Every structure is written in C-alpha cells, then in structure tokens.
Amino acid sequence: MYHLNKILAVAFIILLTGCSVGEKKIKIFSLEKPREKLNYEMPTPLQMEDIYWYIITSENAEEVFAKLEAAGIDPVLFGITDKDFQVLARNFAQIRQKLQETNNLLEEYKKYYEDSGNPQ
Amino acid sequence: MIFAVLLITGIAGAGMYVMKLRSDNAVLKANQLKLETAVEEQNKVLKQQKEDFTAIMESNKKLNVLINTFKKDLQDLDKRFTKKNRDIGKLALERTKAIERIVNGGGKNAARCIELASGAEHTEAELKATLKSEINPECPALANPNYVPFK
Fold first, then answer.
1. Are the beta carbons of A100 and B74 separated by less than 8 Å?
2. Is B74 domain-assigned?
3. Which run of H or of E encompasses A101?
4. A-chain residues within 8 Å CB-CB of B87?
5. Predicted TM-score (pTM) of this structure
6. Which residue in A3, A46, B64, B65 is deepest, having the highest Cβ count within 10 Å?
7. How far is CA B15 from CA A24, A99, B86, in A?
8. ipTM beyond 0.85?
C-alpha cells in the first residue's frame, strides 16, 4: 500500500507537470509594407521669351511708327496707360508669387510625405 | 474498487483541469504579446506624431517667411512706381528713352523671376550677387539668396 501511494504520487506529479513540456510559444509580428512613392518629376521650369516695350508719347509717336515700318514690323501697337502698366506689373508679380508659393507647397508636401516616412 | 474509480476520476479531472489551465495560459500569453505589440506600436505612433509636429511647425515657419517676403516684394514694387510722389507717366514724357530702357530692363528681370519661381536653376551670377547693383530688384529674395539688403 505504501509503495502504491508512492507510485501514485509520482504518477500524479508527472501528470501535472508533463503538460508543460513541449508547449508551443506564440509569436505575433506585423509586417508593414510602405506605400509606393508617387515619383512625379517636378514641372519643367518656364522659359520666358523676350518682349520689347515701346514708350509712345504724343511727341515721339510718328518717330516710333516710322522705325517700326523701317524694320518691317506692322505699324500697330497695343497700348496701356502708365497706370495700367503699374497694374500689369503688380499682376505679374502676384502670378509669380502664386507660382512660387505653389511650387514651395509641392516641395513641402513631398518632403513631408516622402522623407519623414508618413505613409499617406 | 470504489477507491480505484475515485482515483481514476480524480486523475482525469486533474488532467482536464491542467489542460484548461494550459489553454488559459496560451490565451493569456497571446493577449500579453498583443498588448506588448500594441504598446510598441503606440510608442512608434507617438514618436512619429512628435516628428510630424516638428516638421509641420518648421514648414509653417518657412511658408510664413515666404509670404512675408511676397508682401515686401509687392510693397517694394509699389514704392518703385510711387516713391517721392514719382509719376511714371510724367517721367516717361520727360525722359522717354531712359524710361523705355528701364521698363525693358524691368520686364526682363520680371520674366527671369517667373522662370525662377517655376523652378529654374539659379545662374552662378545670381547666386554670387551680394551688391545692390548685381541683384535682380524685381525679386531679390528669390533670385539672389545670398544678397542681404542693407537696413
């Protein structure tokens, strides 16, 4: 009876601890696939063509038209007043600034989303 | 006989209990791992948010500087036309040739400013310009990054 108890006790211990042998470990991992980059080239810079501004007053008008005719250019001019010239200069400055602002924004977006690893 | 039945039932019960413990343990371990992963991911997100915030602040600062430069450029342009009650029309009547030359020079400079604003590369002369006589007065901040205006 004494031996039977011993055997039973050992068997009981083995039964309880045996389950812990060969227990599989769980591993959780996530793999992040970065979004493909939108590798557009920056827009090609503009190449502006030269234009010539003629200043015509009541005194030099004939001289200017004569020069145009002599150079084989149609003696016709599209004119604006001095005030409108200022407005035109201002409008051009604003267009240029908007262009620069848009280009800068584009570069900032590119830098933010492509350099810092933001996936959006 | 009764003792043997009790013993077998007991052992079976213990075995099932251990199996249940084992399964509970597996669930708990899985949860623990998920929590650890979540914490790690949250830390990463927090770090990224911090970096993003710094990048956004820096970008905002740059754009604000740019917008202030724009305002100044427009004010300078207005000043060139109206400085000391200047009347460009009157000046053109008095000194037609000189004003024609100035207007054409200004037009060329303005066209160059548009090219630069659209992303054209600076020329060496533009980069080197540090004197007022060397700069493009239509957009000095854009055309001549090394020019520091005298205040």
1. no
2. yes
3. helix A82-110
4. 82
5. 0.71
6. A46
7. 19, 77, 103
8. no
